[in-house]
Design a protein that fits this description.
The strands form 2 sheets. This protein has a 5-stranded parallel β-sheet. It contains 11 helices and 10 strands. Helix 3 packs antiparallel against helix 4 and helix 6 runs parallel beside helix 8. Strand 4, helix 10 and strand 5 form a beta-alpha-beta unit. It is of the alpha/beta class.
Length: about 350
């Protein structure tokens, strides 16, 4: 809020300065003294026009400015090379001047537009624009919206197991915001969960979290842009989107699977092991009760229906694999809390 107020004050001061400079210029010329009010109006309008251009360029980043400057320089070089070629040796001076002028304007325009469209490739041309300096070997992980919506990334980073820098492109943030603003309650809840995960990541100390200033023209280009960024930055891709993961794998990008990680860290239960479980509902068979482990595995406890709603200690009888992970059968050992 303070920055916005400061910018407004600077803009007002700039317009007043333009008006004062215009009046001083009019008073310096004797013939213009009577037209000081017109000079004042011209100064105010000129300053306001500059401020209007500034407002329209609000989303224009330093990365875009660097790319446009390079494009203009390249366009000027191309126009000079063509203008100095034998094509422009013979002819009327006025015609040659007009052709060179048109060529200069066209090349400058095309150079600026092409450079702005490909500003994400700009790090291949000028190294200092690259997101990470070349001499610093920092592992990078690009996070997509599905991983943020999943929510587990914040808990994993909170354990400090991830030492890489997390890169979140600007278009992923915009996609999350669009989902959170959706009229569909389910999509809105997903989007808000993703934004909550982002805030949780920002609150983690010593976590290298970076926002990559990159945009996409439409939603359909989001997946391909993520893969391209991962390729160009030599980063891994963290996602729970299976289709995006397959696309990344096809292009040689390493992708991190949260589901595979969760499966890998599940504790292996052995027969006779004692565990604690909250019983949440009755089972299908008589006297059975159902509970769940932290990894989502179902625990079926025999002769425990009377303990539904309580935490109990059970002994593992058998473990069977299932589509959801595994199903644990146990018998009641003792009730430990109500």
């Amino acid at each position: 809020m303070g920055l916005k107020r400061t910018i407004v004050i600077i803009r007002i001061f700039f317009v007043l300065l333009c008006a004062a400079g215009s009046v001083i210029a009019a008073m310096a010329v004797k013939e213009w003294n009577a037209w000081w009010w017109l000079a004042l109006l011209i100064g105010v309008l000129g300053g306001s026009l500059v401020v209007l251009v500034d407002v329209q360029l609000r989303g224009f980043s330093l990365r875009g400015l660097s790319a446009m400057t390079f494009g203009l320089a390249l366009g000027a070089l191309i126009s000079w090379l063509i203008g100095s070629s034998p094509l422009f040796v013979w002819g009327e001076p006025a015609v040659l001047f007009t052709c060179r002028l048109v060529l200069f304007i066209v090349c400058m325009y095309l150079g600026a537009v092409i450079a702005l469209r490909g500003k994400d490739e700009f790090n291949f041309v000028i190294p200092y624009v690259r997101f990470v300096p070349h001499e610093v070997d920092v592992p990078l992980v690009i996070v997509d919206s599905s991983a943020l919506i999943d929510g587990r990334i914040a808990k994993i980073c909170g354990t400090h197991f991830i030492s890489a820098a997390l890169i979140i492109p600007r278009f992923v943030l915009n996609d999350l915001q669009r989902i959170a603003d959706s009229p569909d309650p389910a999509r809105k809840a997903r989007g808000r969960r993703g934004l909550d995960s982002l805030n949780a990541l920002r609150a983690i100390k010593n976590l290298d979290l970076r926002i990559h200033e990159s945009e996409v023209a439409n939603r359909q280009e989001l997946e391909s842009k993520l893969v391209f960024l991962a390729q160009s930055m030599k980063a891994k891709l963290l996602t729970t989107d299976y289709n995006l993961a397959r696309m990344a794998e096809f292009h040689g990008v390493t992708w991190l699977n949260l589901h595979a990680l969760a499966k890998a860290v599940r504790p292996e239960l052995t027969l006779g092991e004692t565990i604690e479980v909250d019983l949440v509902k009755p089972g299908r068979e008589e006297a059975q009760a159902i509970g769940y482990l932290e990894d989502g595995s179902m625990v079926v406890v025999a002769d425990a229906r009377a303990s539904v709603g309580k935490k109990v200690t059970v002994e593992v009888v058998s473990v069977l694999p299932s589509a959801g992970g595994k199903m644990v059968f146990a018998r009641l050992q003792s009730e430990i809390s109500g």
